[in-house]
Amino acid sequence: MNILAIDTSTEACSAAIWIDGACRSQYALTPQGHSERILPMCDELLAEAGMSLEQMDCLAFGRGPGSFTGIRVGTAVIQGIAFAVDRPVVAVSSLRALAQNAFSQWGHKNIAAAIDARMNEVYWGLYQLDEYSIMQLVGEERLSPPEQVTLPQTQIFGAGSAWASYTQTLQTSLGSKLDAFNAECYPTASSIALIAEKEFSLGHAQSVEAIQPVYLRDRVAQAKV
């Protein structure tokens, strides 16, 4: 299985190539310039691996929620590549990729992934590791004020930029159910590639015409790329 994955949904910009279980990636933490960085990242990874886009079995990207501009950039880039080489696409939640990255770094199996949505709101979702070491959503992804983030009785590790922006509010709201948190954790293309490999095997890839960005805010939910 060969997969090219990208993510531009947050301050982190990254690309990855998954080749039969081995992953190469490039990553840059920068608030701007994703549109200028992402294609060179892909080109460099392909060159290093001695591969071409035509040798990819599928493509994958972070479909949001996150930065409106970043999500549009990622969606447009993956659409352009998919049209050019006629490959299916796996759209992966940015929150799910964030939770997967948190597990990869620290080994926590229950994650509250939360991204700062600005305007005193957060994008968030609860994720639990399955038997294949892939993060699965528990319930639904939401947009809400930080004081409305709620957890089940399970002890949770927090990950994502919202934990920096609303540290005290989230800690007060969640109390003893919060084990710890790390605000310097972001979605990554390598986590997206890992998830996409499993989703592709389950038949969850889509045609390029079917993929859509996910914003969560109602007023941009129907926005077109």
List keywords for this structure.
225 residues; alpha/beta; Nucleotidyltransferase, domain 5; 5-stranded mixed beta sheet; 32% helix; globular; disordered C terminus
Topology:
Blueprint lengths: L1 E6 L4 E8 L2 E8 L4 H16 L8 E5 L5 H18 L3 E4 L1 H13 L3 E7 L5 E8 L5 E10 L11 E4 L2 H4 L1 H8 L3 E5 L6 H13 L24
Parallel strand pairs: 1-4, 4-5, 6-9, 9-10
Antiparallel strand pairs: 1-2, 2-3, 6-7, 7-8
Overview of this protein structure:
- There is one protein chain.
- This protein has 6 helices and 10 strands; from the N terminus they run βββαβαβαββββααβα.
- It is α/β, with parallel strands linked by helices and about 220 residues long.
- It has 2 domains: about 1-95 and about 185-220, Nucleotidyltransferase, domain 5 (2-Layer Sandwich), CATH 3.30.420.40; about 95-180, 2-Layer Sandwich (Nucleotidyltransferase, domain 5), CATH 3.30.420.40.
- The strands form 2 sheets. A 5-stranded mixed beta sheet has the order 3-2-1-4-5, sandwiched between helices. A 5-stranded mixed beta sheet has the order 8-7-6-9-10.
- The radius of gyration is 17 Å and the shape is globular.
- About 45% of the residues are buried.
- The model is unreliable at about 220-225 (pLDDT under 50).
